[in-house]
Design brief:
The complex is a heterodimer of chains A (about 500) and B (about 130). Chain A is built from 14 helices and 18 strands. With about 500 residues, chain A is of the alpha+beta class. Chain A starts with a helix and ends with a strand. Chain B has a single domain, classed as Rossmann fold. The chains are: A alpha+beta (about 500), B alpha/beta (about 130).
Chain lengths: ~500, ~130
């Protein structure tokens, strides 16, 4: 060939370059004693196969000629450990790979063979572990078209599946951390498969039936089944994701809430599978319900307060002589109502103490330093919100009257408020006694005050109340039954 | 069709309301309409006792829906059983009324005297709702 003169002659073993440790072993081996003969006499097909094998990052092994001479690469050698075949050595047939002998014979007959093998091998930690391998054997034809040998590539199936297991573990961790259930529904068989969390979201354990469509549907609130089905049908028709929230019937009789998200998978244009996740949103739903109840309650309270303001306006108009007197009295009463609300806000509208209601009604009328003008005595009495508002209004009327016309209108007058509980009669007796003041003749207390205290208050709380205008000052006497509205503090 | 204007004058009513101030406003409005407020009950139990008191000669009632000791429906049922008309009052809005009583005129708080008059007339004209509910 003329090319030999025009280009530098290639080295006889150029096909071995870059072949690692094994290439050196091949180069230094004495092939003259083998049926393969010296390297420079090897057929090109063998050289190409060896070059391919040595250059592969995957474990490869070539078996050549009737003498079954092996030439493997470094990864294959590492896989075999101490049993690494020396260049040219005949394979120990089934010792390394059970079933290899048969597979080799088939491949030498011209057939491509795939062999799955499980065997132990050294693990990363040194301890032997069971591992899976896939051997792919292909015949190599020589220049004459005859099968000269067999090229074997080993795939470490364990490495592939280890990567898959790691991916799955990450996914499972993410699902569990998010308390996400994962599920799949086979449309042909109408069967569900689902994770433990998916069942747990329905309140179910591993043994509860949850595979057949009807088992799953039975766990869904009947009112919500059509909505869920419509979302799924829509997703199948459009190929879009679906997201639906529905109620579940828990085994303990309770109602839960599930958020399900998913999409359909198609084969040949037909939806064959649905897959997705589910999330237990019962707590979120309950919180939303609580909030709605709170808003309803607030709405109720605002409307009732407006009705109270309306009432105060009507009552005030009826009991005052002039528009200017209306304005003053009305605003004072609105302030009294606001005071009751402030007091109730401090306890999140759970109620208030009678002593606070009385003391604040009086303090609102008195200057600082006048606290000795009145005395409050009695055991701790807890008032419900409505009772607190009403009694606060009653004591406001009494205190306003006292400062304008009664005991607190003169320098020497004082008020003693005392109550006592009769546990046998289940009632509390409250006395408001003014002394040292002028004789009282208050038009508003006689009108609105009397109506509020003697009628409205006792209708709300039961019992009786009397307002008496004595020469020494006003005496208000109430006998109110103990109830949820008014009781001894625990 | 001509109808004789219905008068509420002298109509004997029971008021069930658990907040004294609110009850006073309603009482005053009813009195302005010429009605006689026979009594005011602040609880379901007191309301039931008053409905059963034949001596009161009740002709109807105004019922606050939410009372301290529960919903007013037992009182409504008792009134319906006696064939007495009634209207509801509520601070919760119409959504708070049980479906069994959806047809009963319902007055929202705060009160409109005109609405109160119209609802009372409607209730007196159509009579007591069917008893029982269920």
């Amino acid at each position: 060939m003329t090319s030999r003169t025009s280009t530098p002659a290639p080295r006889k073993d150029d096909f071995l370059s870059g072949g690692g440790e094994m290439a050196e072993l091949i180069r230094s081996a004495d092939w003259t004693q083998t049926a393969l003969g010296p390297i420079e006499t090897w057929p090109q097909s063998l050289k190409t196969a060896v070059s391919l094998g040595l250059g592969s990052p995957a474990p490869t092994n070539i078996v050549w000629g009737p003498g079954l001479h092996q030439i493997c690469n470094d990864p294959y050698g590492a896989l075999c450990g101490a049993a690494r075949p020396a260049p040219g050595q005949a394979p120990d047939q089934d010792a390394a790979w059970p079933g290899f002998g048969d597979a080799l014979n088939k491949a030498r007959g011209g057939e491509a063979v795939v062999l799955d093998v499980r065997r132990s091998r050294a693990s990363g930690t040194g301890a032997p572990e069971e591992a899976g391998f896939t051997l792919s054997l292909s015949p190599i034809r020589d220049e004459a078209g005859r099968i000269g040998g067999v090229f074997t590539q080993v795939i470490d199936a364990s490495a592939v599946s280890r990567a898959a297991v790691r991916t799955r573990e990450h996914l499972e961790f993410a699902l569990e951390a998010g308390r996400l259930g994962s599920w799949e529904f086979d449309i042909a068989t109408q069967m569900f498969s689902s994770t433990a969390y998916s069942r747990a979201n329905f309140g179910l354990g591993p043994d509860d039936p949850f595979e057949r469509l009807e088992d799953v549907v039975a766990r869904i609130h009947p009112d919500d089944r059509p909505r869920r089905q419509a979302a799924i049908d829509q997703a199948i028709a459009t190929g879009e994701d679906f997201e639906v929230e529905y109620r579940t019937l828990r085994p303990d009789g309770g109602i839960g809430w599930i958020l399900a998200r998913g999409r359909a998978a198609y084969e040949g244009g037909r939806a064959v599978r649905l897959a997705g996740i589910s999330l237990d949103i019962t707590e979120r739903r309950n919180a939303e319900n609580r909030q709605r109840l709170l808003l309803d309650e607030l709405n109720h309270r605002v409307n009732n307060t407006l009705a109270s303001v309306q009432s105060i306006a009507m009552q005030t108009r009826r009991s005052v002589a002039s528009p200017s007197a209306f304005s003053e009295t009305f605003i004072e009463r609105i302030h009294a109502l606001a005071r009751a609300h402030d007091l109730l806000s401090e306890s999140a509208w759970q109620g208030a103490f009678l002593s606070d209601v009385v003391a604040r009604s009086l303090a609102a009328q008195l200057e600082n330093g006048e606290a000795d003008r009145f005395d409050v005595q009695g055991p701790a009495i807890r008032l419900g919100p409505n009772a607190a508002v009403t009694l606060n209004m009653a004591f406001h009327e009494l205190a306003t009257n006292a400062i304008k016309y009664g005991a607190l209108s003169s320098a020497d007058g004082r008020i003693d408020i005392a109550w006592a509980v009769d546990l046998e009669a289940r009632e509390v007796t409250i006395d408001w006694r003014e002394s040292g003041g002028p004789a009282v003749n208050s038009p508003t207390l006689r009108g609105f005050g009397t109506r509020l205290i003697e009628q409205a208050l006792t209708r709300e709380l039961g019992g009786e109340a009397h307002l008496t205008f004595l020469p020494d000052g006003v005496w208000c006497h109430m006998r109110l039954p103990l109830s949820a509205k008014l009781n001894l503090a625990a | 069709m001509m109808t004789r204007p219905l008068s509420l004058s002298g109509l004997r009513l029971l008021l069930v309301e658990d907040e004294a101030m609110v009850a006073m406003a309603l009482e005053a409005m009813l009195e302005d309409l010429g009605c006689v407020v026979v009594d005011v009950a602040g609880s379901v139990s007191r309301g039931l006792a008053l409905v059963d008191d034949a001596g009161l000669d009740l002709e109807g009632a105004v019922l606050d829906v939410n009372l301290g000791d529960g919903k007013v429906y037992p009182v409504a049922e008792r009134l319906a059983a006696r064939g007495l008309p009634f209207i509801f009052s509520t601070g919760y809005g119409l959504a708070g009324i049980a479906p069994d009583y959806a047809g009963v005129p319902t007055l929202a708080k705060p009160y409109s005297p005109k609405a109160l008059e119209a609802m009372l007339k409607k209730a007196m004209t159509s009579g007591a709702p069917k008893s029982g509910g269920t």
